[in-house]
Every structure is written in structure tokens, then in C-alpha cells.
DNA sequence: CATCAGGGCCCTG
DNA sequence: CAGGGCCCTGAT
């Protein structure tokens, strides 16, 4: 519990993302739930990445204000091999969609009344997720049926007990436990962390990873959105809400929007129609017509821009929908 | 103090 | 396919 590891700098690699690209838009998501798994500080992102059963510290930065290169500094207890470096680089490229092709979207909608400003500020932003599939599902599990505050509390309790604290570059972030670690933990012990019925889901999801019934590798190799969706829905404790986040953020389907949760529905409704009451069904139809194959990316640009603005100015109707 | 719904999902009818 | 129940907490 509260296993701590001090890591030292071992290597820096660089990748060149496809254009157009926005570093901050891609690596910092104001709308994402805050956790000790990721730290964005002074234009740099700190997180753990697990490769070959080991957790490495990773620091990601834009190499210079105008260069489009992304630097990845890797921290570890001892020197690392080229294959580890490659694997971590690949993981960053995949999780942050650095090889994605969104040029068509920017071209087509830079004049769109709702997208012009977000594109001006964030043009080149990618849908991205800091976590592995397993990590994402753990987060999604504590997000269920809870307010953000309680979610943070549950995640902190879990990380304190089962996570690995990594110290590198003068910062601290946690690496999530592995599915195998969770196999050794009893449901009762988990429940003692006050996470309620979610204990069962965590156990079952972990087990399906250990038995290879679920494999991130395999899912990533699938081409069709529908196939991935069906495979994800088979996982116990994973429903339409988590899957729709995953299809967009982790699997980068820019049109992955056929489901709107009530709280998101209200926010999108307000942005599109100036009221909170338009039905999700109507919204989905209009969004399809307006942005077609880019519809979820469009919503993401508008959404992140809104959350970013929230830091600058007070948006009362939004505060009502975000219960911290 | 009691009641209730929450940034879902499963299960039942 | 609609709706109750789930753990626990903070808001009322």
C-alpha cells in the first residue's frame, strides 16, 4: 500500500504529430475528471505508462512554441532498452491520437458559427485519453452513479491502497494497479474503501483482463466501430455511457455519438439552442445533419472550449450542471 | 433527523 | 424497453 518509487530520467524521444496540431488542446482536457493519475503543470503532462508489466514515468512537452514536435521524457529506476522506448512512444501516439487525420474537419468547419472560435483557439486538438483501457474502465467504474466529489474520493482511496506512487521530475503521480494485483484482493476489502457495489465490477473487469477475455491490443486492431462497441458491451459493468466515451476518446471514432447522457444533453442543448430542454433525440438528429462524420469531434471542440472558458469567466448555467 | 439523487449498469417483468 | 435497486455521501 502506497508503494513509492523514485524514478530517474533515462531518455527523451520526439514524435511529430500529423497537422494541424494543438498541444494544450490534446494533452489538457479541462472537462475531464481530476485524478492523481495525471498531472498537467506549466504546459507539461506527467503520467505513468505501463509497458511490459512495469510502470514508467512519462513527461510530455511541446518542444518549442512553434515547433510541432512533441517530446517524451521517460523516467525509470534503471536504463531502458530501445524496445521499451519504442513501446512507450507508440502508446503516447495511440492514446493521444497523434497520428489522427482531422485536417478535413478543420477545413470544413472553420467558418461554422459554433466552431469558428473553438477552432481558432484549439484547432488541431485531438480526442485523447491518458489511461490504458483498463485504467479507463476503473475510472469509469468510480464515475458511476456518483458526484464528481465522491468519485475523486473513491479513486483516491483505491490509489492509496493499490496504486504505485511514482516520483519523477519533481512531481508525483500514481500508476494504476494491474488487473493481476486486483485478483488477489477480496471484494470485501474493496468495499471497505467505501466504493459500494462498484467493488464487484472492479473485480469482474479485472478478471476479464487477466483471463485475456478482454485485450486492449485486440480491440485496437479491430477496424469496425460496431465490433469494438459490441465487444466492450460484453464486459460486465460496462454500459453505453462508458462505451461512447471510449469509442471517441480511446478509439478515436470522430462520429461516435449515438448516446447523450442527461447532464451532457443539457449542456449541449444550451449551447445549440439556448435552452436546456431540447430532447437528446432531437439534438442527435440535428448534430448528425450539421456535422455528419465529424459530429462527436465537433461536440468535443465546443465542449472543451466551454470548460476552458469556465476558468476565465463565471458561467452560472454551467455551474448548475457540474456538481463538484 | 430523514430523504433523495447522483457525470451507470444490471436485472427483472 | 421501462423501471427498480445498488453502496455511500453530501445536499436539502
Number of domains: 3
Count of DSSP helices? Answer: 16
- Estimated helix fraction: 40-55%
Shape: globular
- CATH fold group of the largest domain: TATA-Binding Protein
- The CATH architecture of the largest domain would be 2-Layer Sandwich
Tell me the Rg in angstroms: 20 Å
Report strand order across the widest sheet.
2-6-5-4-3
CATH class of the largest domain: Alpha Beta
Mean pLDDT: 94
Strand content is 15-25%
Largest sheet: 5 strands, antiparallel
Structural classification: alpha+beta
Low-confidence stretches: none
Element order: H for helix, E for strand: EEHEEEEHHHHHEEHHHHHHHHHH
CATH superfamily caption of the largest domain? DNA-3-methyladenine glycosylase AlkA, N-terminal domain
Question: What would you say this structure looks like, in words?
Answer:
With 324 residues, this protein is of the alpha+beta class. It has 3 domains: 3-122, TATA-Binding Protein (2-Layer Sandwich); 133-164 and 174-250, Hypothetical protein, domain 2 (Endonuclease III, domain 1, Orthogonal Bundle), CATH 1.10.340; 262-319, no CATH class. It is built from 16 helices and 8 strands. The chain has a 5-stranded antiparallel beta sheet with strand order 2-6-5-4-3. A 3-stranded mixed beta sheet has the order 1-7-8. The protein binds a DNA duplex (13 and 12 nucleotides) through helix 5, helix 6, helix 9, helix 12 and helix 13.
Amino acid at each position: 500500500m502506497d508503494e513509492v518509487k523514485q524514478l530517474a530520467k533515462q531518455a527523451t524521444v520526439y514524435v511529430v504529430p500529423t497537422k494541424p496540431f494543438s498541444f494544450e488542446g490534446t494533452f489538457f482536457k479541462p472537462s475531464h475528471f481530476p485524478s492523481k493519475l495525471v498531472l498537467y503543470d506549466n504546459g507539461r503532462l506527467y503520467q505513468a505508462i505501463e509497458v511490459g508489466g512495469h510502470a514508467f514515468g512519462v513527461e510530455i512537452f511541446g518542444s518549442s512554441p512553434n515547433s510541432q514536435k512533441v517530446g517524451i521524457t521517460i523516467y525509470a529506476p534503471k536504463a531502458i532498452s530501445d524496445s521499451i522506448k519504442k513501446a512507450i512512444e507508440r502508446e503516447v501516439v495511440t492514446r493521444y491520437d497523434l497520428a489522427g487525420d482531422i485536417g478535413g474537419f478543420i477545413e470544413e468547419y472553420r467558418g461554422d458559427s459554433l466552431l469558428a472560435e473553438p477552432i481558432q483557439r484549439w484547432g488541431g486538438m485531438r480526442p485523447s485519453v491518458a489511461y490504458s483501457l483498463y485504467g479507463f474502465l476503473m475510472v469509469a467504474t468510480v464515475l458511476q452513479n456518483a458526484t464528481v466529489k465522491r468519485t475523486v474520493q473513491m479513486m483516491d482511496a483505491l490509489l492509496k491502497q493499490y496504486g504505485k506512487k511514482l516520483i519523477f521530475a519533481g512531481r508525483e503521480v500514481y500508476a494504476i494497479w494491474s488487473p493481476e494485483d486486483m485478483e488477489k484482493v477480496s471484494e470485501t476489502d474493496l468495499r471497505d474503501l467505501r466504493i459500494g457495489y462498484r467493488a464487484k465490477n472492479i473485480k469482474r473487469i479485472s478478471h476479464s483482463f487477466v483471463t485475456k477475455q478482454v485485450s486492449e491490443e485486440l480491440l485496437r486492431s479491430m477496424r469496425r466501430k460496431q465490433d469494438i462497441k459490441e465487444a466492450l458491451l460484453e464486459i460486465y459493468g460496462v454500459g453505453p455511457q462508458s462505451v461512447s466515451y471510449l469509442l471517441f476518446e480511446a478509439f478515436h471514432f470522430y462520429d461516435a455519438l449515438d448516446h447523450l447522457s442527461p447532464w451532457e444533453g443539457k449542456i449541449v442543448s444550451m449551447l445549440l439552442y439556448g435552452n436546456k430542454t431540447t430532447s437528446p433525440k432531437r439534438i442527435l438528429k440535428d448534430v448528425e445533419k450539421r456535422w455528419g462524420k465529424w459530429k462527436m469531434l465537433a461536440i468535443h471542440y465546443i465542449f472543451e472550449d466551454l470548460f476552458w472558458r469556465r476558468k476565465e469567466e463565471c458561467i452560472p448555467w454551467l455551474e448548475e450542471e457540474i456538481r463538484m
